[in-house]
Structures are given as C-alpha cells and as structure tokens.
Write the structure tokens for this entry.
Amino acid sequence: MRFRHPDGSTVHLAYCTNVHPAETLDGVLAQLRDHCEPVRRRLGRDRLGIGLWLAKDAAHALATDPSALRGLRCELDRRGLEVVTLNGFPYEGFGAEEVKYRVYKPDWADPERLEHTTALARVLAGLLPDDVPDGSISTLPLAWRTAYDEQRAETARTALRTLAERLDALQELTGRSIRIALEPEPGCVVETTRDAIAPLTAIAHDRVGICVDTCHLATSFEDPHTALDDLARAGVPVVKSQLSAALHAEQPHLPEVREALAAFAEPRFLHQTRTSTLAGLRGTDDLDEALAGETLPDGAPWRAHFHVPLHAAPTAPLTSTLPVLKSVLTRLVGGPQPLTHHLEVETYTWQALPPELRPRGRGQLADGIAAELTLARDLLTDLGLKELP
C-alpha cells in the first residue's frame, strides 16, 4: 500500500510474511498464492505491499539463480504484490514448533549472518518495483546479550562495515539503494533505541540505521518522543518501522490478571517481560518465568513481547500498547517530512494466541491481517497522508 505524504514523498505500508511459515522458494511462492493475494483482495486493492521473510534456503536460491529471481518478480506482479522491504531477522526455522532463543542465531559475529544479509540485499535489489529506488532490510540487533564480549562486538562491527561497502557496490551495479536496519529487541545486546546509538555511530555509515519496532519499544517502556529525539540528535536514520503492539497488564499482582497472562505463555516464541521500577527496568526472558513466583516485581504494570493483533486488543483485564504505536507513528510520518518511508505491520503470533483467539483456517487469518492493515491505513490517513491506488 502506498501513501502520499504532504511533502510529496511516498510512504510504503506492508505486512510481514513471517506469519506464514516457509523455508524454501516453493514455500514462498505458495505464500503469495494462499495468503498474500487473498489479503489484497479483501482490501479491494490492485496492489499490496508485503515485507518478505526469506529463510536462508530461499534467499540462497534466489541470489544464485537469476531465473528464479525473475520468476518471483513475475509472480509478485501477477498477483498484485510489491516488495520494498525484507525481514532479515530470522535465519531459518521460524515456523518450527519451538523457536525461542534460536531466532538469534547466527548473530552478527558469525560469518553466516553477513553472507545471508548480503544475499537478501541482492535479492531485494532485483525485486524492487521499477519506480522505487530504495529498499530496506531489518536485521538482528547484533546478538543475544549472553556470550557477547568485546571481541565478538568488534567482529560484528566489522561485518556491518563490510556489508555497507557491499551495499555501496550493489548500488553502483544496479542503481538500487539498499539499507540495513538493526531492530532493537528486549534481551539482546541492543535492547533499546538508546542501546543502538553507540554501535551505529561507531559503524558510522548511512547504509546502516535502525528499525523501530513499536512492540519492542513499548515492552522496554521507552518513551517514544525521547527515543526518537535521541536518534535524531545522534544522526541515526530510522530506516524502517515495524508497527506492532505488545501485551500490557496494568495490575499484574491480581490473580485474575496472572491467569489472563498465563493464557499467552506458550512454547514457541520468547515473550520477554518487563516492568519499570524506581530502580530501573526489570525483566525476564519469558512470560512463564515472570509468572513463576516472585521473579519479577508486580507493583507496577508489566509488558510482554507478544505481538498482539493491532485491531483486536485482548479483553480485560489485559490490553495492548496500541497507544504507543500511535504516538510513534505520529512522530514518524506526521511531521513536515517522514522520518521513514517504510512501514511494516508485523504480527507473526496469530497462531500463538490463546486457542479461542486463533484464526481457524486461511480465510480467518487473511481477514485478520486485512483488518490490521485497515487500521494502519486509517491511522495514516488521519495523519494527513493520502492513500494511492
């Protein structure tokens, strides 16, 4: 979906396909047929943006076979779909029964991460629409926090500088500008936007910036205005933003609230949980850890890294952090010029919701994704952006 900002520039809105498990190119093609095109049809649009997630096998196939890349581009065109951004965070196995900590491997100290992201950049350069010169790729925020020392940190910085040089060469070759965005996430080396400033200014290359995920920002109780002001002062570009909402519990000490939260503690993904105390941010790596005993103080609200569907906040006594998303979006695209032109709805947890909230079949999932995009579209038009055909 494309929108015209009052300054005349185009803002792109997509939804991320990591909600649909696929590890191979054939699986990606099936996604377009079975999920993405039906969402577009529900929205009544001739063109829909998707943020592709390409696992390592699919990315390798596309990067090494020009005919396969042309075939995917043709299939996107045939189904009324376009790609300006990729989700390069998960490497493989994101559809597995248990993902948890594995999503953070390989990290930026491992050569596989550099090679995979280079492949993604080459693929994206070949998938961008003819009238769109700029693409973006969100990626792991360096590494999970454990087993990360200064030696690995320097290796990661070197890898990102190497990637930036490769992206410069790619633009010279193709005329397409691809940028990379570190995506802060609770529990990682770069957990908050403030954590991103030092490594990104050390890399000091305009090809490497930040992806503001509004669920992650809210989970860490960051103030949106402070976060974006800090990034602006440091000269860190917001390459893209993932529009998402976290799970919020206002009174986690109450038994009924604990019971409601327990329904969201599931075995597939990590749901890092945080609370803001006078002594600073406190947290656990997963929601079930927070619910067990006295691990996490419960005198103040809790937020959990669980991407709640944007249009469907949980029922009381829980809610979502949609107000944080709205505040971030106002700052990102509500001013005289957009701070980013790439927006992506990323709710990959549809099938991890409590059983009574999960979509039953492809049709209900497509309905839910279309409803999320409709809400995002309405927020953008309320900010003065004009939806384009």
About this structure: The CA atoms of residues 271 and 353 lie 12 Å apart. The first strand starts at residue 2 and ends at 4.
